[in-house]
Write a structure and sequence with these properties.
The complex is a heterodimer.
Chain A lengths: L2 H33 L1 H12 E6 L6 E2 L5 E13 L7 H12 L3 H8 L6 E7 L1 H10 L4 E10 L7 H4 L1 E2 L5 E2 L1 H5 L1 H5 L3 E7 L5 E10 L6 E4 L3 H17 L4 E7 L6 E7 L18 H4 L9 H10 L8 E4 L2 E4 L2 E4 L7 E4 H6 L3 H11 L1 H10 L28 H8 L8 H12 L3 E3 L4 E6 L2 E4 L4 E4 L3 H18 L11 E11 L2 E15 L6 E8 L11 H15 L5 H10 L1
Parallel strand pairs in A: 2-10
Antiparallel strand pairs in A: 1-8, 2-3, 3-4, 3-5, 6-7, 8-9, 10-18, 11-12, 11-23, 13-16, 14-15, 17-20, 18-19, 21-22, 22-23
Chain B lengths: L10 H7 L6 H59 L2 H10 L24 H4 L20 H15 L6
Classes of the chains: A alpha+beta, B mainly alpha.
Chain lengths: 569, 163
């Protein structure tokens, strides 16, 4: 090969190598600048772009008069970077005074070489502001929101609680969690190497939206009073637990609802989880003789009986192969319907139910809302348990037992709402606890809701008069001086495996007043009293003590004064 | 390359050798352009810095608003805790108050009655607790007082103009 050819070949080889290297470089450039461009751009933006989520303020809960029942409080967690603290001794002195902690302990932490360490938790707003004023580089304050219930354990079951993540559980906090939570805000933009937001360039701010303020139907004075009376009753009667519901029968608005024992939602972690359930809406029980109000209403409305109808009470009756006895195991001869209520005769109401027939009887029971949810705005509501002839496990004997409130399971709110329908001229109202919601400038008023007509107005008035007369005839301990009360006691046996407990009962009383223009209904339930098993001796006196205070709180004049007022009008 | 061209790098020579020499008018024009550009740049920078300062101030004010809202919320909570019923009840008992167990109502003849739910409240005067002795159908107690009140009201109204 000639030298010129050799030279040319070598040049071609070098050119080829250079082209190959060039192609590789171009390929890499295409890879990093075209293919990987989106990912690398995002990586770069993440270095200087910052998106800060601004938590919203959770909505407040207030009673019907605006008293605060639940609100957020901001506290701060204090941490320190000791490695950049300039004068640990001086800072230790200041912090010791402010936080009331030992100075030596603080100095030991501040003088160390660690990069970061927590120093104190739950510092108040006032203390945090003083630390802000110091403007010390090494100190860092992180705001923490804590839910506070200023009334302590009052209305605990009704309110529920909020956990450390800001989520509501049970009661109103749980049911209205989405409304109370609000909407988080966003602050997005470029940040400096020190982490501060740079106001120029792309900057995006969406303010947080605070949660709505809920005004309840609850009157905190009534709530506090019934809680005190309930605790007193449960303790003095040696009971396991108790519940009280106070309703406005015309609207269904709940004026107060209490369970005992309760818990403090400020320290829910210290309480047994079983206490969190609101038994008024979730626990079902056999109502006993209180249910005779429903049976009597059904009998009157269907025309099967009238107040003056007479039945013969032999003291026992067979229904569907099961023998039903009166509570006193005695026969009372010829009795009218008011006497059936006054003496709480199981045989009497069983005759009414059987005379009506099973279809008509259960139709009325359903019309009063049993066997389904009341749809009260509280979580974990139970529907109770109602067997009807359409169910495979219904037997003919159930008709007799159900007529006096055994073999059927209801929740306290169901029975209170059903009896409230009698007080409200036969109209069944949907119970509710939130009266209005305020969100910014907007206010939403919750209107009372009629579920259906359970019985006629005439039936409701007639039955109300019978209930008043029955209480007076029985010499009930629920009756107030100067006020007529329409009501009924109940003493229900408690079902256990294989039958009913021989001694323990669930004592109750439901009543409303004034009978001519009912303003309030009260249901008292005392679970397993030991001093006396009877509702007339435990729940009825408790009702009386509550009612005596309610007439003062609600400014209800005695019957003679109201009658004079109506005459003068 | 030709070997005849002589290039000098001395500054004075460099200037003389520059192919783009220009006269005074051109120089003035270029200077004016530079001045105008500088003014615009200064305007832009001053506006940008003012915007930055304002934005920082907005952030500070937002933080201040947050802190004030937190303060308000804290104060409202403190008020609520001080107004809590157990505390109020305990304080009332310390001061010697006792619970109301009876209310005495005074019925006033021909007293104007408001319609609606408040009519009962308008008809009542709350007096010191005492037992109510009158049963349901008994006359209202203290009728001499009512007669005296009627006379006083009539005296205030003056002579009647009705026939």
């Amino acid at each position: 090969m000639k030298p010129a050819e050799i030279s040319h070949n070598r040049i071609y080889i070098v050119i080829s190598v250079l082209c190959a290297v060039g192609l590789i470089l171009v390929g890499q450039l295409v890879r990093w600048q075209v293919i990987e461009h989106p990912r690398l751009k995002k990586m770069a933006e993440d270095e200087y772009q910052n998106e800060l989520i601004i938590p919203p303020r959770r909505g407040e809960i207030r009673d019907s008069y605006g008293h605060l029942l639940a609100a957020d409080m901001v506290e701060y967690d204090l941490s320190v970077s000791p490695n950049i603290v300039a004068d640990p001794a001086a800072l230790a002195v200041r912090l010791a005074d402010l936080l009331d902690k030992p100075r030596d302990e603080l100095f030991e932490i501040l003088a160390s070489d660690v990069e970061w360490t927590p120093l104190a938790q739950n510092i108040s707003q006032e203390q945090a502001e003083k630390i802000f004023e110091w403007d010390n580089v090494g100190l860092q304050l992180d705001p923490q929101t804590r839910r506070v219930y200023p009334e302590g354990d009052a209305a605990a079951h009704l309110l529920g609680f909020v956990n450390g993540n800001g989520e509501g559980f049970y009661g109103i906090e749980g049911y209205y969690n989405n409304l109370l939570r609000g909407k988080a805000g966003v602050q997005a933009g470029e940040r400096s190497p020190f982490g501060e937001m740079i106001p120029l360039g792309t900057n995006h701010f969406v303010p947080p939206v605070s949660g709505g303020i809920l005004y309840l139907t609850i009157d905190r004075t009534i709530q506090y009073m019934i809680e005190q009376e309930l605790e007193r009753a449960v303790v003095s009667y040696g009971a396991q637990r108790g519940s009280v519901v106070v309703l406005n029968p015309k609207t269904g608005g709940v004026l107060g609802m209490a369970n005992y024992p309760a818990y403090d939602p400020n320290n829910y972690n210290d309480s047994d989880e079983e206490l969190f359930f609101d038994t008024i809406v979730s626990k079902q029980y056999e109502p006993g003789s209180v249910f005779k109000i429903i049976t009597m209403a059904a009998g009157l409305d269907s025309g099967v009986v009238r107040p003056e109808s007479i039945i013969y009470d032999a003291g026992y009756m067979e229904v569907g192969g099961q023998v039903i006895y009166n509570w006193d195991r005695q026969g009372h001869g010829n009795v009218d319907m008011t006497t059936v209520l006054a003496k709480s005769l199981n045989v009497g109401v069983a005759q009414i139910a059987t005379s009506m027939g099973k279809d008509r009887f259960y139709n009325y029971v359903r019309r009063f809302g049993f066997g389904r949810l009341t749809e009260i705005d509280l979580g974990s509501e139970g529907p109770g348990s109602l067997k009807t002839p359409q169910d495979a496990n219904w037997y003919a004997s159930d008709l007799g037992a159900n007529s006096f409130g055994q073999g059927i399971a209801v929740t306290p709110i169901q029975i209170a709402s059903a009896v409230a329908a009698i007080a409200n001229e036969g109209l069944l109202m949907k119970p509710y606890v939130v009266d209005r919601v305020v969100q910014g400038e907007q206010e939403i008023q919750v209107k009372p809701s009629v579920v259906r007509r359970a019985v006629s107005t005439h039936t409701a008035h007639t039955l109300t008069n019978m209930l008043v007369a029955a209480l007076e005839q029985a010499g009930s301990e629920a009756v107030l001086d100067d006020y007529r009360i329409a009501g009924k006691t109940g003493t229900a046996e408690i079902p256990v495996a294989g039958g009913y407990h021989p001694t323990l009962t669930l004592a109750s009383f439901v009543g409303y007043f004034p009978p001519d223009n009912p303003e309030v209904l009260v249901l008292v339930i005392i679970d397993r009293p030991t001093s006396s098993r009877w509702g007339s001796k435990t729940a009825a006196p408790t009702f009386k003590r509550i009612a005596e205070q309610l007439v003062i709180i609600l400014d209800i004049p005695p019957d003679n004064i109201r009658n004079l007022t109506m005459v003068s009008e | 390359m030709s070997s005849d061209v002589m290039i000098s790098f001395r500054p004075a020579q460099v200037i003389r050798q520059l192919p783009w020499q220009f006269d005074g008018k051109t120089a003035l024009g270029i200077l004016l352009i530079l001045v105008a550009f500088s003014l615009v740049a200064w305007l832009y920078l001053s506006q940008a810095s003012a915007m930055a300062a304002t934005s920082y101030r907005i952030d500070e004010l937002r933080l201040e608003i947050d802190q004030l809202q937190n303060q308000n919320a804290g104060l409202a909570l403190e008020i609520a805790q001080l107004e809590a019923l157990p505390r109020v009840q305990a304080r009332a008992q310390e001061l010697g108050f006792r619970p109301v167990d009876r209310v005495q109502y005074l019925s006033v003849a021909n007293y104007p009655v408001q319609s609606g739910a408040d009519s009962g409240a308008d008809m009542t005067l709350y007096l010191e607790a005492g037992p109510i002795n009158n049963p349901v159908d008994s006359p209202v107690a203290g009728s001499w007082f009512l007669d005296a009140l009627d006379w006083f009201v009539a005296w205030l109204d003056g002579p009647s103009t009705e026939s």
